[in-house]
Amino acid sequence: MPSFQSVWPGAHRLTGNTALMLVLLGAALALLQNDPRTGQHSRWRGWAGRAGALLAAAIGLVTLMEYLFGWNVGIDEWLWKDSLAAARDAIPGRPSFPAALCAVYLGLGLALLDVPFRRFWPSQVLAVLSVLIALLALTWHLSDTTWFYGEVRSHRGTAMSIPAVTGFLILGVGLLCARAERGLMVLLRSHTPGGILARRLMLAPVVGLLLTGLVYLVLSQGFKVDRMVGTWAFGLSILIFLTFPIWAAAHTLHEVGLERDEAHRALEERVKHRTAELTQANTALETEIAERRQAEDALRKSQQLLQAIIDNSSACVYVKDLEGHYLLVNRRWTQLVHLSNEAVQGKRAFDIFPAEQADAFRAFDQKVLAAGHALEAEELVSLDDGLHTYLSVKCPLYDESGRPYAVCGISTDITERKLAEVAVLEDRDRLERQAAERTAKLRETIGDLEAFSYSVAHDMRAPLRSMRGFAELLLDEFADQLNSEAHSYLERIAGSASRMDNLILDALNYTHVLRADAPLTPVELDPLVRNLVATYPEWQLPEAEIRIDGNLPPVLGNEAFLTQCVSNLVGNAIKFVTPGVAPRVRIWAESTETNVRIFVEDNGIGIASKDHERIFGMFERLNHVTQYPGTGIGLAIVHKAVERMGGGVDLVSEPGKGSKFWIELKKPPQP
Amino acid sequence: VTKTILLVEDEPTDAFFFSHCVKKAGLAHPVQIAQDGREALDYLKGSGQFADREKYPLPCLVILDLKLPHTTGFEVLEHLRQHPKLRSLIVVVLTSSSSHQDIEKAYELGAKAYLIKPTDSHQLLQIVKALSDFWLTHNHSPPSSCG
Questions:
Q1: Is B124 exposed, middle or buried (0-12, 13-18, 19+ CB in 10 A)?
Q2: Strand order in the sheet with A326-329
């Protein structure tokens, strides 16, 4: 304890209250430290710290009062008896005057730690004051100069003890550092030249002077060096300790200056560079503005051109945004609805047309947008002179990103065309009705005629049979009573009647082919032809030779028609031969992918090419009836029948070289 | 054995040639002639002037024209088919119609054969011979009708 109270024997001692104040102030400083993470301290620490600080300040203040007014309130020896006070001629246990002052300053400083006053922090001023007092006391100790302060003016033996000085110095610096982020410490901590100067010029000389003072003390006390030498050495060391930091500081400032000049130059360079850049950018901007103005001009011209074109269109042209607001309309449109182009802007069809029509427009617009391409439709519009029909073509308009932003429409008035169409349709209906009526009448007439001709044909055949029958009867049974002339007349009567009958039969056949129902079915041609050929006695050897080559393929046709065709063709082939020549007929077929051609080739008299077409006509005969009897209907029947079976018929023939007829029919569909 | 033939024919010439051919063929079968359908039915039922079966016996063969006044050949066929005693009568159609519908219909109504009148008298003679050969000589007629 004694060694703690005083550094060396005989020196001033730390009193109980000074120690108490130091402890209180230290504790307060510790409590008021800010948490480095949050930059704050808790509320209870604040209150506790301030309470401790104020208590220390109060003790200091009471002590000061004791000194100033010569009181003794009896607090000096609270903690322990000051048995040594008498030795140094001091008031027992009372803290020294500067210690009390320091305690007051530091206590207030700590209490007001976070309280600003105008532009400065009172706590820091108080801290500096206490540090200065402590330094003064230290100086006193070091120089052993009691007259320096306090002891002389207040009371003898009350100088601050070394531990107190140390304590207050530490606390003062601690107080300054407690809020290092503001006030005086900011400068010391800063990296600015000012900060560097402050650190070097403050710390080095202070530390140096203190050390010098210490050395001086040791020399003068311990070695009893001559006072003059000591003073000179002190002065010299002060000179040295001040010169170095000043030089170093000057050097630093010099370098800082150089750096600043450099920075300044760099800055100017950058400014120049930046200015050039700005100028360039400005020029570019001006060019761009000019270009934009040009583009705007071009756009305006293009818009004017567009407007001029659409204004002179006889159709209505308009553009609507996706919500149906008109963006652009042409003159025709504005004339029809009696609204100026400006008045139309922002309006919708619902504001102009009856709701029903506007709904229809909107529906069509939506359809066009959904389709994504142009669509055409008729639209009804009420105008001054009544309802008009418009043919509208509408298409979606796309922006640069490909999204539709509007619908463009071109509507042409087709009211008159529509009326004309209706008239035409009515005309057509009437004509169709008339045609249907006439067709029905004709059909009836044809039906009547058919029945009539059928019955006439049959009734005509009875007298023909009678004519022929009696003529033949006479020839048979009264031959001996007839001369050759009468014989010949009777033969002519019989022949004519027979020819007439054939004519009627063929005509009936032809009508049948013309009119009968002829469903097309697959027909087995081979047995049909072979059976047919076998039926006719006059087609057999030795009178005639008919050869069927290979197997005739099936065809798509009508069996009755086919029978008729083959029998007519083969009949002709047998009939039209030079007298005395035995007819030779060859029948064969050739198939293509879809069709079958049936050939009938003969060794007959042949047909001149000029007559090739004529032979398929009705009642067309090339030869005299006495030479080759016939009605001239056979090939017409073939032609018509083949036509009705969806096929064709043709021939290759020359006079004297025979004929080759063929009919071409479709193959039956593959099952 | 003589078997009566009933020829239903309105055309006298045709009837004459048929009878002529029967004679010419040397057939002894008597040919009775009805000039229309009604008369034919009267004859077959033995009504009216045809009540005397001795004079007008039931025929073994009926040659029927289709185109007849008053009652057509088809109507005759229809009547015969509905008649209990006459439905098995042998009826052969001899007509000028070659219409397919007529042929179909005739067979449907019970005709046993269908012949088309030839223009040639020689052909008619052959037809008459063939008819006699087949129906009256070789064929066995139903006993109920052909007395």
A1: buried
A2: A326-329, A316-321, A404-413, A386-398, A375-383
Closest by CA position to A522, among listed A315, A669, A388, A327: A669
Q: For residue A462, which of B3, B39, B82, B119 has the smallest C-alpha distance?
A: B119
What is the predicted pLDDT for the residue at A545?
92
CB A661 within 8 A of CB A649: yes
Can you give the three-state secondary structure of chain B, one letter per residue? Answer: CCCCEEEECCCHHHHHHHHHHHHHCCCCCCEEEECCHHHHHHHHHCCHHHCCCCCCCCCCEEEECCCCCCCCHHHHHHHHHHCCCCCCCCEEEEECCCCHHHHHHHHHCCCCEEEECCCCHHHHHHHHHHHHHHHHHHCCCCCCCCC
Which residues on A lie below 8 Å from B11 (Cβ)? 462, 466
Residue from the list B67, B119, B124 with its beta carbon closest to the beta carbon of A464: B119
Distance between CA A457 and CA A502 in Å, rounded? 11
Q: Which regions in chain A score pLDDT beneath 50?
A: 1-3, 8, 147-154
Over residues B129-147, the pLDDT tens digits come to 999 999 998 988 887 767 5
Say how far apart CA B101 and CA B118 lie, in whole Å: 19
User: What is the DSSP code (8-state) at residue A481?
Assistant: G
Identify the pLDDT of residue A144.
60
Task: Tell me the residues of A at the B interface, defined by beta carbons under 8 Å apart.
Answer: 455, 458, 461-466, 468-470, 472-473, 476, 497-498, 501, 505, 508, 560
Give the residue among A621, A573, A577, A627 at the shortest CA–CA distance from A601. A573
Q: Quick one: tokens of B132?
A: 């006699």
Torsion of CA A247, A251, A256, A260, to 10 degrees: 120
Q: Given CB atoms, is B23 within the 8 Å cutoff of chain A?
A: no
Q: What is the C-alpha to C-alpha distance for residues A1 and B128, in angstroms, rounded to an integer?
A: 180
Which of A319, A302, A346 minimizes the C-alpha distance to A405?
A: A319
Report residue A606 as tokens. 């042949």
At A194 the pLDDT is 77
Q: What is the predicted pLDDT for the residue at A228?
A: 74
Q: Is A68 helix (H, G, I), strand (E, B) or coil?
A: helix
CB neighbours of A290 closer than 8 A, spacing ≥ 6? none
For residue B104 the two structure tokens come to 């179909």
Token look-up 């009211």 returns A415
Rounded to the nearest integer, the mean pLDDT of chain B is: 90
Top pLDDT among B11 and A195 is at: B11
Q: Which two tokens stand for residue B42?
A: 């009267």
For position A254, what pLDDT does the model report? 86
Q: Do B124 and A469 touch (CB under 8 A)?
A: yes
A453, A458, A470, A509: which to substitute to probe chain B, counting the most B Cβ within 10 Å? A458
B19 in contact with A at a CB cutoff of 8 Å?
Answer: no
Cβ contact B69:B36 at 8 Å: yes
Q: Decide: A53 and A106 in contact? Cβ < 8 Å.
A: yes
Q: What is the predicted pLDDT for the residue at A12? A: 60
| B17 to chain A, closest Cα gap in Å | 7
- pLDDT tens for residues B27-81? 999 999 999 999 999 999 998 899 988 889 999 999 999 988 888 899 999 999 9
Quick one: closest CA in A to B119, which residue? A465
- What tens digit of pLDDT does each residue of B87-108 get? 889 999 999 888 888 899 999 9
Of A458, A470, A473, the CB nearest to B96: A458
Q: N- to C-terminal Cα distance for chain B? A: 11
Q: Are A13 and A5 in contact (CB under 8 A)?
A: yes
Residues 6+ apart with CB under 8 A from A360: A379, A380
Identify which of A465, A470, A472 has the shortest CB distance to residue B117. Answer: A465
Q: Which of A465, A470, A560 minimises the CB distance to B119?
A: A465
Record the tokens describing residue A33, joined without a space.
């430290």
